[in-house]
Amino acid sequence: MTKLSAKNILIGISGGIAAYKSAELVRLFIKSGANVRVCMTPGAREFITPLTLQALSGNPVHTALLDPEAEAGMGHIELARWADLIVIAPATADLMARLRIGMADDLLSTLVLATAAPVHIAPAMNQQMWAHPATQENVNILKQRHHIHGPAAGEQACGDVGYGRMLEPQQIVDAVSATLELTHTPRPKTLAGHRLLITAGPTREPLDPVRYLTNRSSGKMGYAIAEAAASMGAEVVLVSGPTQLDTPEGVRRINIETAAEMLEAVTSEVPGTSIFIAAAAVADYRLKEVATKKMKKQGSALHLELEQNPDILAKTSLGNPDLFTVGFAAETDDVIHYASGKLKRKQLDMIVANQVGNGKGFDKDSNQVDILTAAGGHFTLPEASKTQLAFEILDIINTVYQQGQVRLT
Fold first, then answer.
1. What is the pLDDT of residues 64-81, one digit of tens each?
2. pTM for the full model?
């Protein structure tokens, strides 16, 4: 049984090329045990037929605002009452603009106004449309009312590359499920009275006024841990590199860009902290001398002189022996071997290791991790949503912390 079992899920489809992915989304929700109905805008029917979605969902597809076959012709009210949650995928720029101002000029937009159920929105559009200030303003307003999932970056049907791709169907299912886990699963306040300092996201190291070195970290794991820790009663401080994620409720967030800025923020927040969790993906190197003007092409190759960034995790761990310190190790190979070496070398209490690359780890809503402790413990957590993993990781951290295990030196 999953968190979605027996849930009544209404999938709304608007008129974007990503509508072809909605068929797989319907299948995955049904596979998760949900009851699924589909609502399509007129534009959506230009990309995928109602018959396909009717066959997959096992229910008639809804397209008309006033349905003569529905009770009193008010099919939209019946659907709005039926749904436990609404998932709109894809959500075009036009639909999001109409939802932002509360229009009800078709069945889907009317349902959003007529329901008390949570609404989940998966945007999909051209990268320039997504970046447009009007769209970003609409998104910021909609985030205050609904759940926004994505978009992802990558190659688009029009040939452009950038943010605007709809998340893959499994990512949407995972994101919706994770929200249900966090909303409906009561958690004991096992971290009450403790202050947790958490780092998340990437860092950016400038090369010149317009370029920087960074990595593919989305910050999702660190943010999930921060949100879970707050729900478990902890006081939480989140030091975050640049992300597109919202600040979790009950969490104090400090925004940084560079590794040096992150070290400064962590150092200032350590006093009074019980547990330090370093989930950020910090750039190992920075440019030795940042150019004050945009660098120009110089022949066929560009040579940059880099220097090491400060090791935030090691400095914090070695400089604060009474602080319970948890590191993260994202590796492409020999995950346990490299994580074990990092655990001992930096004198950590615990390390969370996971494999990245080949579609694993970065910018996904699920993960699989191994946890190693300084006293020789080894916990393997199977793949699950990052929200679920966050609670499991914190439960293990709390258990080991309470036991007061001693570091290996």
1. 776 655 444 445 677 888
2. 0.59
